[in-house]
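Task: sequence design from structure.
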């Protein structure tokens, strides 16, 4: 079964199931919540938290640190 989100960051390999590298903001909803996190490689991620756990629904591109 192919997945649109994968199980790890395609940029740095950080496992989606692991603790987020950095949590930018968290929004609680009736169904659970939404987490905006930044990966170790700098890519922005949107995670949805529900009764089944956490899944990455959107993933941005890595942003290089500095220039
Ligand atoms: Zn990453």
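Answer:
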């Amino acid at each position: 079964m192919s997945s649109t989100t994968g199980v790890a960051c395609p940029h740095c390999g950080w496992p989606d199931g692991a603790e987020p590298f950095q949590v930018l903001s968290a929004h609680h909803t009736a169904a659970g919540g939404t987490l905006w996190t930044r990966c170790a490689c700098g890519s922005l991620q949107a995670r949805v938290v529900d009764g089944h756990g956490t899944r990455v629904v959107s993933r941005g591109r890595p942003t290089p640190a500095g220039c």
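The pocket of zinc ion is lined by residues 9, 11-12, 14, 39-41, 43 (CB under 6 Å).
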